[in-house]
Amino acid sequence: MALPNIAELGMTWGWCRGTGDWAGVQAAIDRNAPVQVIQEAGSTQWQAGLPPQHPFQFGFPKHTVETQPPSDSPAARIWISPIQRQFGPASIPKVQWHPRVLWVGIGCERGTPLRVIDVGIQHVLQAYHLAAGAVAGVATIASKADEVGLVTYCADRHLPFRCFTTDQLSAVTVPHPSAVVGAAVGTPSVAEAAALLSSQLQSSQLENIDAIGESNTQPPRLQVPKQVFRLEGEPGSVTIAIAQAIQEYAE
Predict the structure, then answer these.
(1) pLDDT tens digits for range 155-182
(2) How far apart, in whole angstroms, are the C-alpha atoms of residue 122 and residue 43?
(3) Residue range 102-244, CATH number
(4) 37-90: per-residue pLDDT in tens?
(5) How far apart are CA 46 and CA 4, in angstroms?
(6) Which run of H or E residues covers position 16?
(7) Taking the CB of residue 107, how many other CB atoms lie within 10 A of it?
(8) What is the rounded CA–CA span in Å between residue 49 and residue 92?
(9) Cα Rg for the chain, rounded, in angstroms?
(10) Residue 241 — φ and ψ, nearest 5°?
(11) Domain range summary for the chain, segments of one domain joined by +
(12) 109-122 burial, b if ≥16 CB within 10 A, otherwise e?
């Protein structure tokens, strides 16, 4: 068993390589120096292939700084997370991998331009410090299956585009249901319900989607509750919510 090449670590699971000092972290691994790994999402199967005397320290140490032996101080750090971290000048090199675990639920006015959808999603991701590379796909209501802006957005980024019926969406408990939305489209939630429902599904589960929706009495917490976005000078609006799946999406 060999130590992993940090630049290739997440490729097997379709993770997106983020920013960081890749050469610096690899140099620490190569000299078997202590490397801290903070994994907040994605498969941990890669850990099973590590040699017995690997240099990785998982999570944060439980002892205090005062009792920490100098030899335990990490020489580098690896983040595996949907969060987009900004690395400033630091004493140790850091890198970040982004597992594709974020599902973006969308509701929009008919004819909302691609630009409004694109800028809206970017705005929400940045506001909540989430990485665009961690987005697994987009989900909405079945009546929007032919919405040009949404279809184009997903096609341009090679993202799966999932569409759910009103019955499927109505079965999902959401934090912010709307009677107005319910009267208009037949379900009290589109963006939040679609994000939550997609976050619970893997590709193999799509055939059993109705059963999952019916049993969904306590859905996972949203990373981003619904946000309404409009762009000055552009028609239409988009409602965006984001939920995090336990398992990353892999094509």
Answers:
(1) 999 999 999 999 999 999 999 999 999 9
(2) 26
(3) 3.30.420.180
(4) 999 999 999 999 899 889 999 998 765 444 444 557 899 999 999 999 998 877
(5) 9
(6) strand 16-20
(7) 27
(8) 25
(9) 21
(10) -140, 150
(11) 6-98, 102-244
(12) eeebbeebbbebbe
Three-state DSSP at 161 gives strand
CA–CA–CA angle 140, 145, 151 (5° rounding): 90
Contact call for residues 38 and 81 (beta carbons, < 8 A): yes
Contact 249, 15 (CB under 8 A): no
Nearest to 140, CA basis, from 197, 88, 102:
197
Question: In one letter, which amino acid is 86?
Answer: Q
CB 173 within 8 A of CB 218: yes
Alpha helix (H) ranges present in the chain? Answer: 22-30, 114-127, 148-157, 166-170, 179-185, 191-199, 209-214
Query: In the numeric block, which tokens belong to residue 206?
Result: 């799509």
Q: Is 151 left (phi over 0), alpha (psi -120 to 50) or beta?
A: alpha
Amino acid at 137: G
d(CA 130, CA 223): 9
